[in-house]
């Protein structure tokens, strides 16, 4: 009765709702709104996921994360520091103008030159690497010259989007923050800040990367990204049929989404490596035996199964199994409490050690389990939950290095070791939270950085991974999977490891009528 | 009203604003964490770029100098660029403010509509069933965590009955040219009843979630004030003169009994404007509260400083507004 009355009341309010679900459209419930629409003026992956539907890049990645040409037709590496990109012809911006080599040069100069953003420097500058110059060779060719070899340039280009020179000069950097004129499959209709980004199909689209089928215009008329930051509300919006795809589905809601007849869960390996950084510069973790004992004390499989509900892949090293140069032969530290205690005693700690385990609030559960397991093996860990920025300050490479252990992570969007191995484990790396330093590893990483032969480069990283595995500067943890909730209305869409939601791809003729 | 009172109030504002600026600045400066580190964490970056960004954000200057620059610019209405949006702070705040105002006004209206009649009724029927129910209801309303209540409303009305939307401010199919930027008012002004209904359907759940705790407080205040007034001599006198009970209640008693309610409502409105981040997050409401909380987490200093100053100004003016209302309710009160 009460329910009926409530329904009736609410119906009266909603009776005049607009009938908007006629055109084929894809509605994404997203954790965040875009910070800006300027592809050159942010360092935020969620922002990029949204604007990558409006702007295309020189290169992109296929669903297997292989780098393929997009606005470029092909590329060649002339010598260790020179790359030539052949540009597609006939690519049209949303305002109808033709994309030229000048637009490419302008885009990348804007990213790499100091003060090019109305006096400020692009926060994305270093994502383009040590660029010396970007020049137009001819109408269809742009040359990147680097100051030093940087083998991951092609792996990093998919995260840069090409803008129109004429448009940027007209509206300025302030204008680019809220207006868009890209070459991508969708053009901007309206941005309701903090709320919704509305896009519609770009009918003059050139078709996208030739290596990713199917090639052609987007199959949906419109794409809407709605910011729904709260997990429970985002899941509710999916279950209520208000959105078709949600990102960051919380693992504990997987059952609910699967139980609903109209929705399902989709998983993909992420690119973020989780680990416990051990302070290698300070007792007790300056002793490799203690670090190994810590690795043996953890029943990783149990944590993944019970707390993460099976949504992570265990790691024995730093790299994702999908990454370039992954070493599949690294031995796992077997869960063995007695062996861990023995190692600890050998290292001179027969009565165990007392340490602090730092972590951020969201990881409380996981860290509680880790601490309990460590304590059982004699590494009595006290959990200290704190905010990310506080912990970053405590563990800064330039800081006092007073911590013992930190449950943390490092993202590797490029899926190239140069983007994770070097910063987190090379001596003095800015993300070297464990303060690990090994001359041999440094040497291998440095050689790999300038090696042009990709097979040799992979071998160097594999060797370095083996050393790191045996010295255990971290407790190796896992690679979480990204979880998406997807309406059954959508078929053919696959989540991808770079967490993009490419609304053009994989959605050809697959959107059914809205429920 | 004495026009000098207004001038006096504005003069009072200056030390308040200065004090608030100092406190916010010191608190943000003392909080560990660095916006550049947060922005670049886990990604490719060289120390040179970190340095360049710190310079662009003005973080390479000593704190005292930063504060002086901030104050100097603030006097001219320039609050700098938001570190993360990379646009003027004033623009970013102005984009989000109307949503918060609309939600606050709606919540205030609902709260007043519930609390004043209920408070009066509870006072009149003191210790009887209605009064007891109102007391239990108020206790319930005060104790309800907004977060939990919001989620329950969503599950009930949006997921199970599917009669109200889960989140957002207005359907994307509705495009109403902005005028006041309050979606309900604009839809009305532009003659779009469909959009008005849509805006209301988005507004009702978050407004209700915000309004209930406020209504609970106001009901208690209204009841207490009413009881006190009803005991006073002039009410007894009015009744003795034979004026109808209804007239005594609504004309004679309520006017005086509203004074404390207005005070509390003004304070509550101030905290609603600044403190509804939880509700804004649950309902994906694109308001200021959510923006400020997100900004605190990423140490977006310029935005937080400007927003807190704005809150301080609002608070002072809301209290002034409450004082003005007193003089209307009770002419013996002078400003």
TrEMBL record, chain B:
Keywords: Cell membrane, Membrane, Transmembrane, Transmembrane helix, Transport
Keyword Cell membrane attributed: yes
Transmembrane segments: 6-30, 105-124, 136-159, 199-218, 303-326
Major location (coarse): membrane
Subcellular location field: Cell membrane
Biological process according to GO: transmembrane transport
Entry's family note: Belongs to the binding-protein-dependent transport system permease family.
Stated name of the protein: ABC transporter permease
Protein's organism: Microvirga brassicacearum
